[in-house]
Amino acid sequence: MTDRAALGHLTDEITACRACPRLVAWRERVAREKRASFRDDDYWGRPVPGFGDARARILLLGLAPAAHGGNRTGRVFTGDRSGDWLFGALHRVGLANRPESVWAGDGLRLTDAYVVAAVRCAPPDNKPTPDERDRCQPFLEREVGLLSRLRVVVALGAFAYASAWRVLGGAGVALPTPRPRFGHAVEVTTPSIAILGCYHPSQQNTFTGRLTEPMLDAVLLRARELASA
Q1: What sign for the dihedral angle of Cα 17, 18, 19, 23?
Q2: Could you say which residues of the chain have pLDDT below 70?
Q3: How many other CB atoms are there within 10 angstroms of residue 216's CB atom?
Q4: Strands, sheet with 194-198, edge to edge from the N-terminal-most edge strand
Q5: What is the pLDDT of residue 198?
Q6: For the chain, domain boundaries
Q7: Chain center to CA of 117
Q8: What is the pLDDT of residue 4?
Q9: What is the torsional sign of CA 129, 135, 138, 139?
Q10: pTM, whole model, 2 decimals?
Q11: Could you tell me which residues come within 8 angstroms of residue 180 by beta carbon, excluding any fewer than 6 positions away?
């Protein structure tokens, strides 16, 4: 089975998952009640799979879909301000064919990059519980295993950084001990894969200037450099 076909089968499994009752109830409630500005939209309201290039060498890992972003549009980092920042940067560094994404199936294509969230359902207050995180982890483990050319993981935030560490360690990647503290542009290299830390492109970070466009671009350019090494 090709990487693309196997990822497609995994996508079907992810979107059918109902393993976490609290998350199922929340995502479906949000999809019914909607935000006033999106009242005419048909919300996705299901787990949100990863997407991108099946032959990607760069994995971008976030926390979870936004309630009115990925939970509405059906694609992670799509239809919200965080996605505007991320896809704008991916386009500037040559990893995306367009600078914005508004809905799954809108023509956005990634080259050499795959985008995913550690938790696949939108959680209340954007805070999954440890049990919810752990139930979702096998999906990420399988995705990492299917991305056969993977060389770099860009962890968007401390939650994603910790998730990447657990998944890669479980896959047998020789990680340093102790784990380096998360920070923007922190870089951990191993013989097989590199992990880059990046502040999450949330409004909390972008509105305050904690994360700027040049900072985000620099991390993605470094990811391209490491992927090509």
Answers
A1: positive
A2: 1
A3: 25
A4: 51-52, 113-117, 58-62, 152-156, 194-198, 187-189
A5: 98
A6: 3-228
A7: 3
A8: 87
A9: negative
A10: 0.96
A11: 186, 188
d(CA 197, CA 63): 13
For 3-228, the fitting CATH number among 3.40.1360.10, 3.40.470.10, 3.40.50.300, 3.80.10.10 is: 3.40.470.10
User: Strand 187-189 to strand 58-62: parallel, antiparallel, or no bridges (unpaired)?
Assistant: unpaired
Q: What is the pLDDT of residues 79-124, one digit of tens each?
A: 999 999 999 999 999 999 999 999 999 999 999 999 999 999 999 9
- Tokens, residue 40: 């005419």
Contact between 27 and 132 (Cβ < 8 Å): no
**3-state secondary structure labels for all residues of 206-224:** HCCCCCCHHHHHHHHHHHH
Q: What is the pLDDT of residue 1?
A: 61
